[in-house]
Amino acid sequence: MLITSAVRSTHYPANMHLEVAQLHKQFDTPQGPLIALQDINLHVETGEFVCAVGASGSGKSTLLRLVAGLEMPTTGEITVDGQPVIGPGIDRGMVFQSYTLYPWMTVQENVEFGLKLQGIAARQRREEASRYLDVVGLAQFARSLPKELSGGMKQRVAIARALANHPKILLMDEPFGALDVQTKETMQEFLLELWARLGISILMITHDVSEAVFLSERIYVMSARPGTIQREVNIDLGRDRAYAIRRTPEFYHHCETIMDLLRGTATAPLPA
Amino acid sequence: MTVVSPSSTGSASSQSTQSLKPTVFWRIAADIPQSLKWALMALSVLVPLLLWWGLSSTGWVDAKFLPTPGMVVNALVVLWQDGYLLGDTLSSFLRVSGGFMLAALVAIPLGIGMGAFASVRSLLEPLVGIVRYMPAPAFIPLLIIYLGLGEEPKVALIFIGTVFFNTLMIMDAVKFVPKELIETTYTLGGDRRQVLLQVITPYVIPSIFDTLRVNMAASWNLVIVAELVAADSGLGKRIAISQKFFQTDDIFACLIVLGLIGFMLDLSLQAAMRMTCKWAVK
Ligand SMILES: Nc1ncnc2c1ncn2[C@@H]1O[C@H](COP(=O)(O)OP(=O)(O)OP(=O)(O)O)[C@@H](O)[C@H]1O
Ligand SMILES: [Mg+2]
Predict the structure, then answer these.
(1) A61: contact with B, CB 8 A cutoff
(2) Which ligand lies nearest to the CA atom of residue A225 in the structure?
(3) Predicted confidence (pLDDT) per residue in B90-127, tens digit
């Protein structure tokens, strides 16, 4: 697992700047127009780990899909290094909450697939994929089929697959949302370590406040109906974090602050 | 645990607590023991066979109408020795293969295209939807007028009778490709062509096998219909001739051959799928 200052220096760009400016997104539904996102401004800088948290329906997934280019804004602009986002591209890697490995491909083939799509020669593909399987600690499962893997392992493969494309930024939509608590914690530490080692920029969506505080340096707290960013919170817990940090007063404090923000806008409890 | 909930303090209500009774035979969506499975499967063939044997050899039913199993085996042997069995089976088989393969060749790309592109679907679905309800045998007279009495009208009939179902079933399978699998491919740098050929197509291959299995049965139906109407060889033709000479034993022999061939083709398609799509096998 001792990569890879090589990976880091050669592949991840020294500078990356994601900018979301004055973003609005409206869906036309049978019930009329639905404003999913309003007035969204955010940015992610080189090597940053940024989270967006919010209640269900606050437009988190929509936001990430817009950044990924899978959806087009109604108004506003998204740029990566000054280039407007006009569709999906390999500079923005994506990891979904649902397991999105290609079920007929082995783990190795899954990780190679992005490189294959770009027409990279088989040998180079294999080497690159093996390197990233090493990075995520799954080298011995290279020949397994996705159905033979646990949920956490599947997400690791999905991360390796996204990374093998050398994206400028990794977008993650509740990547650990479907995992059990223990696996989730393991994966969080794994992701932190990966981030620190590779120096990659990450924009992650979650509704788990402690996950966001544990992982990120900055958090955008969103509110629902319409989806807006109500606050940006800096998490000054340093870059080297271990599980123990969750027991510190600072950690609690951050969590409480964000929970209060979310409670303030959460819909009232249903009448009994 | 002797917790008494406030609502069930009365002895009557605690006695009336019912739980699902255990069962082996009637388990829903669960497996049964292997031994039971094989026993039941043997029964499924043996009981009708015994019934047949009983009815025919006790003289309950006139052997002219219901030949005994022995007579049918005999008929099979004679048909084989005369070379009819092999010749007729081969004729029917070749017609089925021709029509079925042509239909698959057209239906697979068409079905994938219709499933993937709403535009192609809008363009073709009304047409396919209407034509598929025209019973294929109704085309026989036209086909004979257009194509004569040779192999072409029979192959064409099988084609017409299966291509539309094939197409619609494959189209439906494409709708089940998870949207996120397609979107993942875009974010990995794939273009639409690559999504179509390298993601959607492999994903629906198991469903294509299932579709082909269903339509294989339909193909055999149609070839027999075509041969009953006009042919100089084939199992359907053999049945028609046997009817003329009141040889019910020959008819039974042909029916059994048809059943066995269909069953074997189905098994081989299943085996082919298990071999090519290990990932989709439970
Ligand atoms: N394609 C679409 N068409 C219409 N409405 C949509 C579409 N996508 C999302 N929405 C609506 O936009 C709103 C925001 O959805 P989104 O999935 O982004 O929320 P979310 O914050 O990710 O929620 P969750 O935590 O449940 O994943 C919801 O009200 C949703 O119903
Ligand atoms: Mg979501």
Answers:
(1) no
(2) 1
(3) 999 999 999 999 999 999 999 999 999 999 999 999 99
For strands A169-173 and A92-95, give the pairing: parallel
Q: Is A22 left (phi over 0), alpha (psi -120 to 50) or beta?
A: left
CATH code reported for the domain at B69-280? 1.10.3720.10
Residues 6+ apart with CB under 8 A from A156: A136, A137, A138, A187, A190
pTM summary value: 0.87
* B72-94 per-residue burial string, b: 16 or more CB within 10 A, e: under 16: beebbeebeeeebbeebbebbbb
What is the Cα A30 distance to its own chain's centre? 31
Q: Give the contacts of A59 (CB within 8 A, at least 6 positions apart).
A: A25, A36, A37, A222, A224, A226, A227
- Rounded to the nearest angstrom, the minimum Cα separation between A224 and chain B is 24
Q: Residue A55's domain is classified under what CATH number?
A: 3.40.50.300
Asked whether residue A5 is assigned to any structural domain, the reply reads no
Q: How many domains does chain A have?
A: 1
Cis peptide bond N-terminal to A226, omega within 30: yes
ipTM: 0.90
Atom of ligand 1 nearest to the CA of A55: 25
